[in-house]
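#struct-pred
JK: can someone run the complex with magnesium ion? inputs below
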Amino acid sequence: MEADLERILFDEATIHRRLDELAAQISSDYRGRELTVIAILNGSVILMADLLRRLPMPLKLDCLSVASYHGGSKTTGELVFRQLWMPDIAGRHVLLLDDILDSGVTLATIREKIESIEPGPQSVRICVLLEKTKTRLRHVDADYVGFQIGDEFVVGYGLDYMERYRNLPCIGVLKKDLIVAAV
Ligand code: IMP
Ligand code: MG
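RT: done, structure tokens with the ligand placed:
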């Protein structure tokens, strides 16, 4: 799989060191409050497992399954929710967890949906491992960001291309010739 990368951006040790820092910041910000972490599937599974084990506090975990790419490498701008029920977030401190903030469509749509539930959450914050520095289709502010990257297509550590590469321990830029030209 590594041979399919143009270059590695973050190796496993670098990611884990950054997770230590993020976990310390989150634990300190939520001291004395109980979190509901909502992990957005499938991209955040590896991050979820590694980050949550670094949080030494009581929390509840829920997952949301959404799709926006439908197989390609560019968002369609339309988000499909794959489950019938939304997590129970009444009065909770919600932390949305996703792999990457790209166009902003996913997190803006989910945040809107979570905030429209009655009775609503006490607070909603966003944690992403990666944030692409670019103009977004929807404005979203992430409260916790692992790393900022340029506008390149990356895979590994949960991030996929057509559902592959999620199990790569590092994060890297996928070789351009492996990305099927969008039609
Ligand atoms: P959005 O464009 O901010 O809505 O991001 C939607 C989803 O697209 C993210 O949760 C990722 O799963 C996926 N995504 C965005 N950029 C990349 C990338 O560079 N590599 C792999 N997946 C990506
Ligand atoms: Mg994806």
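RT: quick notes.
The radius of gyration is 16 Å.
The pocket of inosinic acid (ligand 1) is lined by residues 43, 68-69, 75, 98-106, 153-155, 159-160 (CB under 6 Å).
JK: thanks, will look after standup
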